[in-house]
């Protein structure tokens, strides 16, 4: 081993030696013999090449080890979504470990005078919640149960475009009862679910009735899956087709059956001649017998009766819903038992709004002017717009089928997305109807709200009467 180390040292010296005598002497020293034929020089050259080759291999190994990436610790990364196996849940996050204080303060220690005093924190009782200054739809019927609390739905539209205006605040509204400004204690713009009574006028001409029948698919689409709908028809009498139900197969079936109904014949009634009485000779029926007299049937349009019946049944529905009556008619009234004043009082008492689509003659541009002329035995043509104006609703005069379908969506959206104001009536509970007026402190806006309210009669307390 010692001789090998000396030999390596000699090789190093030989690489720098300039003469062959040094090479020969070093080889002779290692081998113990004299170099006479240049053998030492060949040995030195071979060891020189071996030295360089070893150096190159060593440098290559060092560089290769430096370029290898360091071994990475596997991470818990979830797999990509797969179509063949359900997604795996993410690993639960680990909570950071909080270091414990080395010297926790004793229970009786006093705070240092240099430390700022701790702020006082007020807590609410268990099970309560802190008020956030906002009202929700559910609070309307959970926080206020007094009978003299007045709720006023309001629709606000742009006068130029007719679009509903959003983003108004409570400070933008003012409510006046009999001319006296009231203090609002409730405000929300949350949408409400609907309980809607849809009334079809079968006293229209048959062409108008068949055109309306083709719009039933759009009528179904105007309601949401959470709304409740009931169907009615009227002409000379009122009929209820379905009770209040969601938009389901039962309602679709009722509308399909309604397509088979026909409207009235708009021609002149036949009261004489062979088509009315049969063949006659000299004014006498053939075969003898008395002369038959044909009189046209009495025409009726019991709009008041239809709205009253729908209102009475709407009053029994859940009060957390917005209650509306949607009438598809020309608005004529003739022959009802109920009066307009009595029907309107029921609507205002139960907070029911009337919307409608004016068809046939009521959709003409000059309808409002012609409806002021009351002809005997022709009914009143202006009752439907009067109902809508007094209850905060709206009538859309539309003539074409696409316009009628668009009116369905507008009416339901307006009724569902209203501002809801509430205030506590001052003094004792009113026994007569009160006038209401809603003002908005923003120019160029159209404000629609019911013109008043009629309180329910007070509940009598006594034996056998629930308070």
Would you mind describing this structure in some detail?
The structure is a single chain. By secondary structure, the protein is of the alpha/beta class. It folds into three domains: 2-56; 136-191 and 417-460, Immunoglobulin-like (Sandwich), CATH 2.60.40; 193-262 and 298-416, 3-Layer(aba) Sandwich (Rossmann fold). The protein is built from 13 helices and 16 strands. It has helices at 2-16, 20-31, 39-67, 139-142, 206-213, 216-221, 249-258, 274-277, 303-314, 340-349, 367-370, 383-391, 401-416, and strands at 149-158, 173-177, 180-182, 184-188, 194-201, 228-234, 238-245, 280-281, 284-285, 322-329, 352-358, 395-397, 419-424, 434-440, 445-449, 452-453. A six-stranded mixed sheet has the order 7-6-5-10-11-12, with helices on both faces. Strands 4-13-1-15 form a four-stranded antiparallel sheet. Strands 3-2-14-16 form a four-stranded antiparallel sheet. Strand 8 and strand 9 form a beta hairpin. 24% of the residues are buried. Residues 80-91, 93-97, 101-112, 118-133, 142-146, 369-379 and 461-467 have low confidence and may be disordered.
